[in-house]
Design brief:
The chain has 354 residues and is α/β, with parallel strands linked by helices. Helix content is 51%, strand content 11%. The chain has 2 domains: 145 residues, Rossmann fold, CATH 3.40.50.1970; 189 residues, Dehydroquinate synthase-like, alpha domain. It is built from 13 helices and 8 strands. The chain has a 6-stranded parallel β-sheet, with helices on both faces. A two-stranded antiparallel ribbon has the order 6-7. It binds nicotinamide-adenine-dinucleotide.
Length: 354
């Protein structure tokens, strides 16, 4: 028997084809009279469609969301919200846009409605991150948890394949670490295994050129499950390493996840056998280790495999290992600097995990 504590996160999820036509009704359900729609410059056209769907509940668009949520962008968006008389936010996009919505809601306690258009899963968590003077402050805040998430596969039809893979592997990483989390529980484990299975299946179908709406539906379903795992269980070595590599060496977030994940699983395998079996099973690869199956999936999907290909310098690996080993955190296998340095070398070179 496993003892556990499970607190469900109160997020309403509306999932399906054409789900996003419910946007106005869903905003109204939360008592939002005027919603500011947030997006990146690249997704402005979609935000304009959202304003049309929101009709009289639309306050306007703020289209300057960028990666890592700089404090200046938050202040700028707050000004735009004040000028528009907003009392709620709608985020249309991926983790970067959702991150801006979270920062606004933490100050104002406004409800957030999210319409995700990538697979990274941020919409299901109360985890926020704001960057000031090059340092990203992260934490959890109940106001950062979206109230309603509307998943509509048709909005991800144009998501480029490389961003689909990168954000999808990011989601798989949440689920993989949730399977051995210190505060894991049976509900999270079920979601994690099913989330990995659905995401891998959807991405493989996309790669094979299958019917896009079915494949995109599987990916979004996987994103929901994997994001829910991240929202309910603490993370360990893999997420900490990615945070170090992104924060101190400015590597791109999503690609870093897909490169490091197989190596982090190889490091933890000796201490998390049941989790590893579930990962292999979810990937349909009972013939290889979880680390091998994840590396194989990344290869199959054409993902970047080596840190050296995304801007990491070999000369910085020692410092990265020092940072990763110097901050104590829970992990199923104790954090040993030498093992972390070996892991980083393999990830740097893009070799199959040990
Ligand atoms: P993203 O939001 O950074 O978007 C990547 C790019 O894809 C952007 O240029 C965006 O405009 C474009 N894009 C998004 N959807 C598109 C679509 N359907 N069609 C065409 N282009 C589209 O990507 P992401 O990977 O979702 O988010 C990464 C960020 O999210 C990181 O900063 C990470 O730290 C954060 N994150 C946070 C959490 C959390 O729980 N707080 C979880 C996962 C990721």
């Amino acid at each position: 028997m496993q003892a556990f504590i499970y607190t469900a996160q109160p997020v309403r999820v509306v999932f399906g084809a054409d789900a996003w036509s419910t946007l106005q009704a869903e905003a109204g359900r939360l008592g939002v009279r005027k919603a500011l729609v947030l997006c990146t410059p690249r997704q402005r056209a979609l935000a304009e469609q959202a304003i049309a769907v929101l009709a009289e509940r639309g306050a306007g668009i703020y289209d300057q969301a960028v990666m890592h949520v700089p404090v200046d962008t938050v202040a700028d968006a707050q000004d735009a919200a004040r000028r528009a008389g907003a009392d709620g936010v709608v985020a249309i996009g991926g983790g970067s846009t959702i991150g801006l919505a979270k920062a606004l809601a933490m100050e104002s306690a406004w409800p957030i409605v999210v319409v995700p258009t990538t697979y990274s899963g941020s919409e299901m968590t109360s985890i926020y991150g704001v960057t000031e003077n090059g340092i990203k402050k992260t934490g959890k805040d109940p106001h950062a948890l979206p109230s309603t998430v509307i998943y509509d596969p048709s909005l991800t039809l144009k998501l480029p394949f490389d961003i689909s893979v990168a954000s999808g592997m990011n989601a798989i990483a949440h689920a993989a670490e949730g399977l051995y989390a210190q505060d894991g529980n049976p509900v999270v484990a079920l979601m994690a295994e099913e989330g990995i299975r659905a995401m891998a299946s959807g991405l493989r179908q996309l790669k094979a050129g299958a019917d896009a709406s079915g494949a995109r539906g599987d990916c979004l379903y996987g994103a929901w499950l994997c994001g829910t795992v991240l929202g309910n269980a603490g993370m360990a070595l893999h997420h900490k390493l990615c945070h170090t590599l992104g924060g101190s060496f400015n590597l791109p977030h999503a690609q870093t996840h897909s490169i490091v994940l197989p190596h982090a699983m190889a490091y933890n395998a000796v201490a998390a056998d049941a989790a590893m079996q579930k990962i292999s099973r979810a990937l349909g690869r009972n013939d290889v280790s979880a680390a091998g199956a994840l590396y194989g999936l990344a290869q199959e999907l054409g993902a970047t495999l080596a840190l050296q290909d995304i801007g990491m310098r070999e000369a910085d690996l020692d410092q990265a290992a020092d940072i990763a080993a110097s901050r104590p955190y829970w992990n199923p296998r104790p954090i040993e600097r030498a093992g972390i340095r070996t892991l980083l070398q393999a990830a740097y070179e893009g070799r199959p995990p040990a």
